[in-house]
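Example record for the data management plan.
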Amino acid sequence: MQGQTNTVDSLRRVFYEGFVAQDLAEPLASFDATADVDAVRTFMVDRPLTVVGIRRDGLVIGCIEQAAFDDRPVADQTIPLAETRIVPATTPLHTVVTELCERDYLLVSTLAQPVGVIVRDDFEKPPMRMWLFGMVTLFELILTRIVANHYQGDSWTQFVSEARIEKAVSLQNERQRRNQSVRLLDCLQLGDKGQLLSRSEELRKTYWDKSRTQIKTTLGQVEGLRNNLAHSQPLVRENWDTIVRISATLDRFLEIPSEVISPSSLSPYHSQLKPVGDVSDRESK
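Corresponding structural encoding:
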């Protein structure tokens, strides 16, 4: 467990600072407000582009959306910047995810001028996939630590099916064969760890304010997202709601102090797992 606290802090920095809006943004094409409407329409359809900027006196003063394009002069159908959503180029990706829940695109600004645009399809790019993989890793790391701190030793095994335990034991044996020192809990599937958290009313109230059914659904979606990431499958159409949920859940998890998630690496490994009362008294029925 050497350096695990630092690992948690490093992953937090990835979540909040490692990737930002400019890593996903595409350049914002723009036209003068006096441009020919048919030329602008053809340009947008041929690319295709969701939105283009509209300039006046050399500065972008608004935009036009392809979905709402009509035959009026460009200047007459320009949407003022005040009616759009603009984020700085340094905006963290988890904020970008939240913003794109409510709209089809975001404009990205540098030096107070919109210079880029992000749509949901941009989430298929490598930077987003790297961020998502780190996010899923951090999610499971924190979840494992919460469960380990709650259950005394391997007392959690009474709440997991024999078949799932056998699978975990098999994985643990394989890792030990490779000279990897891991606990049985570390070899448990993500969904099983989540169910161990969800069965405890105390843990749900403290870390994840959702019902057991909602948690189970989210965990299944997270596992599906991880599989799609591992096999380079499309993400946005199938996994958008999952991306939003895990981003919001991690935002809450990341409020947990590092020393709670992962004590000092200088402490003996087994002494880090401190039970909190009798598990059987704390489980929800």
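Summary line stored alongside the record: The CA atoms of residues 168 and 188 lie 5 Å apart.
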